[in-house]
């Protein structure tokens, strides 16, 4: 059902995947990064590289179970961007779905590649 809903709509909402403590840990990690790096609080690029708690969450069994059930075992994150749209930092962007990702090289599905090498990925359409 998840895969069908995802294929039809391009997204799937799964309630309560994270508990309150996990959400708070992520919030704290992002807030600490913003404060420590004097980053503007409306966005962080390279989230997977810069905030270890995000990488840890992406590799956790609950998240991997969901990802693998929809995209397969070969799926892995290649990019993470944080947006904090708030009244002080907001910009008009109509609803859209990103259909492309930035990679260094393209690899055919099933080609040998390392999950730690973000230059390689296969797109799901």
Structural description of this entry:
By secondary structure, the chain is mainly alpha-helical. Helices cover 38% and strands 3% of the residues. It has five helices and two strands, in the order ααβαααβ. α1 packs across α5 (61-71). The chain is globular and about 40 Å long. The model is unreliable at 115-125 (pLDDT under 50).
Helix-residue proportion? 25-40%
Q: Which structural class should the secondary elements be placed in?
A: mainly alpha
SSE string: HHEHHHE
Low-confidence stretches: 115-125
Percent of residues in beta strands? under 5%
Number of helices: 5
> What would you call the shape?
globular
- Identify the strand order in the major beta sheet: 1-2
Radius of gyration: 16 Å
Largest sheet: 2 strands, antiparallel
- Total number of β-strand segments? 2
Mean pLDDT: 78
C-alpha termini separation: 17 Å
């Amino acid at each position: 059902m998840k895969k069908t809903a995802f294929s039809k709509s391009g997204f799937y909402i799964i309630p309560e995947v994270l508990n309150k403590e996990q959400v708070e840990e992520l919030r704290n990690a992002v807030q600490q990064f913003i404060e420590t790096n004097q980053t503007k609080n409306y966005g962080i690029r390279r989230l997977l590289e810069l905030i270890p708690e995000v990488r840890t969450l992406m590799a956790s069994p609950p998240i991997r179970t969901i990802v693998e059930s929809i995209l397969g075992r070969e799926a892995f994150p290649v990019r993470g961007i944080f947006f904090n749209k708030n009244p002080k930092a907001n910009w008009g962007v109509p609803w859209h779905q990103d259909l492309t990702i930035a990679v260094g090289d393209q690899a055919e599905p099933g080609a040998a590649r390392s999950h730690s090498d973000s230059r390689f990925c296969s797109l799901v359409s």
